[in-house]
Amino acid sequence: MSGGTRLENANPLIFQRSGERLLTAEEEDEEVADPIDDREIFDLIRSINDPEHPLSLEELNVVELVRVNVNDNESTVSVEFTPTIPHCSMATLIGLSIKVKLLRSLPDRFKIDVHITPGTHTSEQAVNKQLADKERVAAALENSHLLEVVNQCLSARV
Amino acid sequence: MRAKRSLTCGLCMMAANGAVLLGLVEEFVSGQQDSKAAETATGVKTGLFTILELVEALGWSLTSCEPRVRARGVQLLSWVLQECCGSLSEKEAEVLTVFYENRLKDHYVITPHVLQGIKALTQSPALPPGLAVSILKSLFQDIHVQSLMQAERSCVYSILLNLMESREEELKKLGADFVFGFVQAIDGEKDPRNLLLAFQIARNILHRGYELGLFAEELFEVTSCYFPIDFSPPPNDPHGVTREQLVLALREVLSGTPSFAEFLLPLLIEKLDSDVQSAKLDSLQTLTACTSVYGHRELKDFLPGLWSSLRREVFQTASEKVESAGLSALHSLTACLSHSILDSDSEDSLHGFLDLILKDCQHHLCEPDMKLVWPSAKLLQAAASASYRASYKITAVVMPLLLEQYNSHTQNAQRRTLLEVLQGFTQRAQGSSPEEGDESVLSGFRQPLCSLVFSALTESSPALQATASRVLTALGLQPGLLSESDIQLAADHLTRLILREEDQQSCSAAMESAGSLAALYPAAFAARMVPQLKEEIFSGPPAEPTEDRSAGRSQQAVRQRGMKALAAISSRHSLIQESVPVLLQVLCSAHAGSGSFCAEEVVSACQSLQQIVEQSQDSEETSRFFHHTVIPQLLGLAVQAALRGGDSTTPRSCLTEERVLSAMAPVVSQACSRLHSELAARTASMAVSFFLDGDLTFLPENNFPKHLQLLNKQPDGWLQSQLVCLLMACVCSLPRSVEVPQIDRLLSQLEELSCTCTHPFSYTSAAKCFAGLVNKHPAGEHLDLLLQKLVKRIDSELDRASSPFRVQTFTLLLWVAKALLLRYHPLSTTLTDKLLSLLTDSELGPRAADGFSLLMTDSVDVLSRACHAHVHIMYRQRFFTENSPKLVQGFNSSPKETKSCYLKALSHMVTSLPRQVQLSELPTLLPLLLEALSCPDRGVQLSTLSCLHPLLLDLPQALTLHLDTLVSRLRALTTSSAMNVRISALRCLHALTRLPDHLVLPFRLGVLRALAVPLDDKKRLVRREAVLARGEWFLLGSPGR
User: Any idea where the MIP18 family-like domain is (chain A) (predicted)?
Assistant: First the structure.
């Protein structure tokens, strides 16, 4: 962020990044089918950039492996995320980024549910409602300014 | 009479010349024919007319009352002067200068041509002293520069530059008036081309010591108004002025003198606050540039302001570029303060500045899990690395703090962060090396640092251990810091980590640390580490042989780590002498069957030996050691193993296994390639007489049967014949100057072996050995005869479809073709044509296609530069240009069944070409490669994809025509049945997103739809590539990319 503006939370706690997923022999075997598991979903979202800091959502502990649940057979995914401070104004944007990333990266068959970890944000209900509403998500992505910020969060950092 | 006649003749000619000149002038001035100027100039140059005559001829036009006529006249004169300014006399130059100065007062249409003329005069070496000053005075007085056109303004700047080059003394006598005139002239300049010239003048003024007088501020104002440069050249800009050129030119002006400091520093502080990233970067870089000319007097008033800006940038930035520019500005600022000379009455501003930094950063180091701990550490380290004094002061504060924090925090993650910060400070301490007599800044903390590091090495967290190993290395690299007992303790700790820690990360960090420290303290490592490693390697299997296979596996892993560590520490001869015998002993006991070493461990031992040979510096004593001890022992063991194998009562030694021999060969080959010529010749004759005559006198234990004939056919012969790979390692890697004895006998036996042996490893090694020798064989009739005989044999063998030795013969053909190709031997075409013809062979076709990959790539063990082979640099290009048309033609004319062999060969060939050649050749080959993508052979698909992938980005031109086909072929391959083909195809699709938007956007929707399928692929690795590719295709043409 540029010089003049103050950050909402200038010195947040930093958490350690988990290493790359270790390659197993099964994954290299042509014949074995690898189910989509929690870690795979977590790997999709952990490197999303925070809109304010030059840090990933994982480093800020906004997303955690234990808060990701996937059921490959029933095609459902549920992700809980935790804003760094209870009145964080970026919560909707972060949720939207996670949702868009999953929409782009998972097969159609999945039903994707993204919401705030219960009790960690002042306007939890409102944010969850927005994120669950398909039409509002679609409308948000029509807004080119919002789309730009979301895309920046999803770009690989150079 | 005759003299008179020639005189009249001359007069006539002069009169004639005069008429010609008048004609030229007339046609130029009144006739408006520009070409006449060049003719006139040629006339003056060749001496047909003089300048004086030209002026006389111009007379009427120069005095005409019509300004346009006068302009035309002056123009002609100026053009001619530009061509002939070198040949002017001093008198002419003076007269012309006075004339031109006068013309400056004339009508404005004339001015451009007057300036051209003056510019030409300032280039003349004949300009008399004093005129420079008078030209400048008239220019500054009579011309308002900024109301001229761009070209004329450029002309004025060029005049100034010319005079500065040739008349520096005179201009300096003008004093500050010169600067004042210049300031007025450039005030308001907007053209980037002119700005480059103006900045150059300003730079000259500052760097060459022109007097600024009262005008320092004016000069600053008139240049600093462009800072920071905001310029983006129009597309297709013909003038080629870039933003970087302007930035650098302006920076040299602004940072050119300490007298600008009081104006510049506030400006920089202001611009650092800007929202534009490039402005921030430029300000930081300009600040860094200033520190090389500033002293503490210039800086002292601005230090608090500068510090708070720098701190803000490093604490808050989202850009790595800004951060590193900020850090290097802080570094050079501190260095500048450390080096500047103090007045007797002023206080040391370095201390004040460092206090500021410490005050703001220190407390963040106490919060190791917060974000700001890293920026603070980086700032402190940047300042500390600037000078010994700075490092001393900062270390004195930070070290006790970090030591205390480490002990008061108990979580591994926090401790690791603190240790990593500490590592930064210990490494920085090396950067600011103490001068003679000063001791290391860390020496006061040796005791607590060592105990901290050693305790961290015993912690359970691998990450903590790994960081501690790196800190240990940094401490060890500080000369004289660690005591002998510290080093011994360190060696013990590292040994423990290497042998006992299962974790890959901490083990390899320990190994790396041991490697660096052993090079500095060989004695300690020879005494402490080598014996422990040896004991561990030879410790028997667990006392009670359990069924637990994991215990056996872990013991094997420990042994392998031990051997790796032996290799890592062996860079000094004294250590090599200790470690190599241990590794050789592993081979001995593996052969003897004691110690339960398996083949894999023996392979590791060989790899360690190879690494030791590679990293040993080419010292005489090491070379001798390998010649006398290592090579004979290896050969002896291999022969013993081969001979014992014939006995059916004992189990076969693992040294007869192909993979063990393949690991042993590079050790021999590396060692031989490094021998000095006398030793090399002895090794060669030893090896040859050993293999040909069974002469074993050099072997350590001489209990072999006489008349050993290793290369001849024998019952159960492969055990012995495969040893030919060691012969190859020996004789094919010697320096080219070494003559191999009995070469004819050797070659004929090798030929026989490679053509008639049935054991693949043996006949391939024999073929390679043969090829290696042929490659180095001196050119001449002898070689040609030998090769012709060989070709005949190969031909007759391959033409007999029933022959049982076709594969063998083909192998020999391939390797000899490679040997000749590398040295540009004329016969190589015959052999490659033979290979091309085999592409249609039903039995050998696929092998021949793969052979092209072998021809084009470097082989490791033979025919490489490391083995001193004859290798022409450009052989790949040459081979490609000679053979690719033949391949294309063969592809077009061959029946469907054999087309794939041609494609495979072609794809192999293109893949191994150097990138530059690929780029220039690919446009013509692209259709064929696209064809190869639809060829059903997976190998062809894969090698074509891996060849295309790096090229996609550089070929937008060639691709535009085929993008349609390419995208559809790639889409089809994303559902291939082979996983690595799917992965490569997805990577190529991913790479396409970096082509220009307008090329790929039309495909966006289709590709996104196609990429949705592999998102549900059954393999995770494929899904991962699909996610990456699809994410990028979504971003295409979308805001925020």
Answer: 39-114
